[in-house]
Amino acid sequence: MEGLRDVPAQWLSSEGIRKGIDTVCQESALSISISDGRELSFSLGITMRTPGCDKELVIGLLFSEGIINSSDQISDLTIHNDKALAVIPNINQTNISQFLRRKSSTSSCGICGKESISNLLHIHGPKLSENVNVPSSVINSCIDELRKNQSLFEKSGGAHACGLFSLSGELLFSAEDIGRHNAMDKLVGKVLLSSKKAFVESFILFSGRLSFELVHKARRAGIPVLIAIGAPSSLAIDIALEHGLTLVGFTKNNNMTVYSGRGRISH
């Protein structure tokens, strides 16, 4: 299965030592560049990701970074030997320079440094809908549904997952990756390629913790409700409060903690 790798391992327990083969989540580098197809060319650096859905990952990243507003702006996207090149004919050099990553990111941190955070804070998405209501009972059922679609996690225990759900609890899209921000970018990329209106009246459920960058990506896509099984960071809560996004954490066993936007959650 793509994204997985078998490695030799030894298990130590009270019963002794057992040797065998373990399946782990793969992590490898993807170099991402953009071009106008003529003279301009920029490197966005390297991201560490789990191979699979690389096209969606690149599109989601470019969208989150504010480089594109639609997948239609990309005339060509090639991925070969862990190198991705997106051709954007109407690329603007001045705008691009504001969002270029200054250094490589890792799978645990999508952005690093005050300059990167400042740049992202100026990238806005559509106005978040106030007419969204998600019943807490629907949220609880969605946790099981997302878990059923975590094939990488099922086999390795090492992948994050996120799912886009309708307000009635239908799983519309899902994505997995060893990196939280990559899983979100893959999800966003899938939606942009499939249905540009799918972000309307929907919410995202995330399998792990919520960082500032994940809140930014949801805000950029116009997702009004972001729910996690784990805990949010302080900056994630601050950004959600500032921009009117509903942020929910510790969602399990029919319990949840709402940190902002309580009006969109009915109980």
Plain-language structure description:
This protein has 267 residues and is of the alpha/beta class. It has a domain at 134-266: Cytidine Deaminase, domain 2, CATH 3.40.140.10. 30% of the residues lie in helices and 33% in strands. Strands 9-8-10-11-12-13 form a 6-stranded mixed sheet, with helices on both faces. A 4-stranded mixed sheet has the order 4-3-6-5, with helices on one face. The chain has a two-stranded antiparallel ribbon with strand order 1-2. It is globular and about 65 Å long. Mean pLDDT is 89; it is low at 101-107.
Rg of Cα set: 19 Å
In sequence order, what are the helices and strands, one letter per element? EEEEHEEHHEHHEEHEHEHEEE
Describe the global form.
globular
Strand order of the largest sheet: 9-8-10-11-12-13
Please provide the count of β strands: 14
**C-alpha end-to-end distance:** 40 Å
Which properties best describe this structure?
globular, four-stranded mixed β-sheet, Cytidine Deaminase, domain 2, alpha/beta, single chain, 30% helix
Give a brief rundown of this model.
With 267 residues, the chain is α/β, with parallel strands linked by helices. Helix content is 30%, strand content 33%. It has a domain at 134-266: Cytidine Deaminase, domain 2 (3-Layer(aba) Sandwich).
